[in-house]
Amino acid sequence: MATRAPDRPTAPPRPAGKRRRFNGRHWRYQADVKGSPYAYVTPFFLLFCAFGLFPLLYTAWVSLHEWTLLQDEHPFVGLDNFTAVVQDSYFWNATFNTLSIGILSTAPQLLLAIWLAHLLNRPLRSQTLFRVTLLLPNVTSVVAVVVIFGQIFGRDFGLLNWVLSLFGAGEIDWRAGTGTSHIAISTMIMWRWTGYNALILLAAMQAVPRELYEAATIDGASNMTQLRKITIPMIRPTIIFVVITSTIGAMQIFAEPLLFGAYSVTGGQDRQYQTLALFIYENFTRLDFGYASAISWMMFLFIIVIAGINFLLTSRTKGDLR
Amino acid sequence: MFTLPRRRVTRLVVPLIAASVLAACGGEAPAPSGGASASAPAENITLTVALFSDFHFAPLYEAFKKIHPNVTITERRSQFNDHHNNLVTQLATGAGAADVVAVEGGFITTFQQVPDKFHNLADYGLSSRQSEYLDWKWQLGLSADGKTLLGLGTDVGGLAMCYRPDLFKKAGLPGDRESVSALWPTWDAYVETGKKFVAADVKGAAFTDGPGEHFRAMVEQAPVGFYDTSNNLVVATNPDVKKAFDMGVSMIQNKLSGKLTAFTPEWTTGIAKGTFATMVCPAWKTGVIKDQKPGEGTWDIASVPGGGGNQGGTHLMAPKQGKHPKEAAELINFLTSKESQLTLWKDASALPSLPSLYEDPAVSTFVNPYFGDAPIGKIFTDAAKALKPQHTGPKSGDVLLAMGNGLSRVELQNQAPEEAWAQAVSDAEKIK
């Protein structure tokens, strides 16, 4: 830098540079440097516009109409669909279920993931084996997971009820209750995503300087204390990233409740585990596209609000670290 | 050093973008359908047939090709719900539908509302077949206004009551199917039989799976169901619906129900393990029972209370997108003909919808050894004949779901019967 500094005042003779631009090779070089990055990202944005942005805007357009798929006329109704959604108790029921399942799955999942990552964040034999094992539930198909867990949480022949009966507990109809069905569905989500999140947290943990742990060990800090006082504060940004992705994922839970209820679009007879995504699906299968689109947009707003809260939390933490 | 490879990349980027744009467009292009691609002269055409399972049509296609050597038939199958949802999308977007499509009874009302999306088979002379058909089956193939012939029926799902003789004997009830059928001429008698069964306290077994299917059967036996003939929802005012609902409530209150929903793991396992003793049984459910391997003779078949009934059964229709309506109509005519229906009964146990076949020995004397040599041909055809035609409204399937969920809320003890009824009715009325 120091040797370059004197060159700076010589900025005015730019015309020379301009003249040089007429040099074909240089022009192409410039176009390449300036243009290529945009060209590289274009495929993504084209696909995003076709499959992300356009459906989003079109859904907004549809939500302002009385839109039944097989009818040729779609009269404009303004915000009527949204008024109806807000007054629909089933919508709020689905919102409650989504939040409940979201919290029940995300919170234990995060604690478990941190703990697992902490266990793996030490010299172990065959580390790769353990790490790959963590990821295995995530690469299993959702359908397979739900079918197996659906059997485990069975009322009459379920494995879990059998184990509970050994301890003298009565038979639990897991699908029937609000709480019990939420626990069952949260378990499936945790099974699939804990390992995945543990790997992300493990990557962050490995960036924490070893010296801190060595110093703490010399000071006589226990394993748990090291986790609480060193690891967690050091990987906080990653934890927040995991929280954000998990909560957004939790807002979109769909396959688990649908398959858990043997393809019941109402999410159980009393809608006890109907999530927002499933509620949208129910109205789509009834071909009531206007209403379903309005619910989709409400869900979109919820996700924006939650992402906003997360964003605020993140920026606050950044301030803390500085 | 690096400019050269970069430039090469730039050159690559353009075709890449072009390719991705093309790929994006490709996603919206219609699936290659035989009707669209065969714009060749009328001599050589391809007909596409879309089904939701194996209908055992393959030998019939071969026979059809012998009469129409210029026609090639391709069949595509998809999962039951997907098949019908796809068809709705294809009709709405105007592309991708097959030349001949199968529509099942539970979905047919959706398509009765949009006759302009289908070829009127009456224009191709198929209305002449009306006299051959069970009347109610014929009516189902008409549009909601009755003016267009949308489709011809293939099979029907005659209704019976499947039961377990072993559990009946344990409860001190008769085990043979004539005596069992005599136990329940009406639904009230069925509930009374159930009470006796419960009083006998057979360990680990409920009298029946759940009240939903019984409610459905009872509503469908009434002269008027969820809708009147002008498609007005009459759930709240039709006494027969309330009566059926109350029958369901009484089944729950007398502890007849095993609180099971059809096709859940508990239900399918329960078929083999014997956790319930009776279930409403359309003809096709015998296949479901057999798949669970409860053992030969474990289940038997008696007649359904209330006299007859039907669940399911399919129609074949020709969407207007198809370019060869004449040939499509001929194929539909062929596949639903008397000879074809008899073949399908023999090959696939599909119960014919042409009553003249019910006298055919191949149907009337057919016994099923898996169900204790039950004369299932006779039982199911009797049920199909006894059914009085009922007008099915536009959203019957969704209304049925709302009402069934109401019964379940009583069953889960989340609601009192009157409350559940009120909510079910208001749910049904919200359905557009």
Order of helices and strands of chain B: HHEHEHEHHEHHHEHHHEHEEHHEHHHH
C-alpha end-to-end distance of chain A: 28 Å
Q: Per CATH, which architecture of chain A? A: Orthogonal Bundle
Q: Mind describing the biggest β-sheet of chain B? A: 9 strands, mixed
Tell me the Rg of chain B in angstroms. Answer: 25 Å
- Classify the fold: give the CATH topology of the largest domain in chain B: D-Maltodextrin-Binding Protein, domain 2
The fraction of residues in strands of chain B falls at 5-15%
Shape of chain A: flat
Global structural class of chain B: alpha/beta
Q: What does the main sheet of chain A amount to?
A: none
- Classify the helix fraction of chain A into a percent range: over 70%
Mean pLDDT across the residues of chain B is 86
Helix count from the secondary structure assignment of chain A:
14
Uncertain residue segments of chain A: 1-11
Relevant CATH superfamily of the largest domain in chain B: Periplasmic binding protein-like II
Q: What is the domain total for the residues of chain B?
A: 2
The name CATH uses for the topology of chain A is MetI-like fold
Percent of residues of chain B in helical segments?
Answer: 40-55%
Q: If you compute it from the alpha carbons, what radius of gyration of chain A comes out, rounded to the nearest whole angstrom?
A: 27 Å
Beta-strand residue percentage of chain A: under 5%
How would you portray this structure in words?
The complex is a heterodimer of chains A (322) and B (432). Chain A is mainly alpha-helical and 322 residues long. Chain A has one domain (81-321): Orthogonal Bundle (MetI-like fold), CATH 1.10.3720.10. Chain A contains 14 helices and no strands. Chain A has helices spanning 14-21, 24-63, 80-87, 89-120, 127-139, 142-152, 159-166, 178-205, 210-218, 223-234, 236-251, 255-260, 276-285, 289-321. With 432 residues, chain B is an alpha/beta fold. Chain B has two domains: 34-157 and 313-361, D-Maltodextrin-Binding Protein, domain 2 (3-Layer(aba) Sandwich); 158-310 and 377-430, D-Maltodextrin-Binding Protein, domain 2 (3-Layer(aba) Sandwich). Chain B is built from 19 helices and nine strands. In chain B, strands 1, 2, 3, 4, 5, 6, 7, 8 and 9 form a nine-stranded mixed beta sheet that branches. In chain B, helix 11 (239-253) packs parallel to helix 18 and helix 18 runs antiparallel to helix 19 (417-430). The longest helix of chain B has 26 residues, at 3-28. Chain B is globular and about 70 Å long. The model of chain B is unreliable at 1-41 (pLDDT under 50). Classes of the chains: A mainly alpha (322), B alpha/beta (432). At the A-B interface, helix 2 of A face helix 1, helix 4, helix 12 and helix 18 of B.
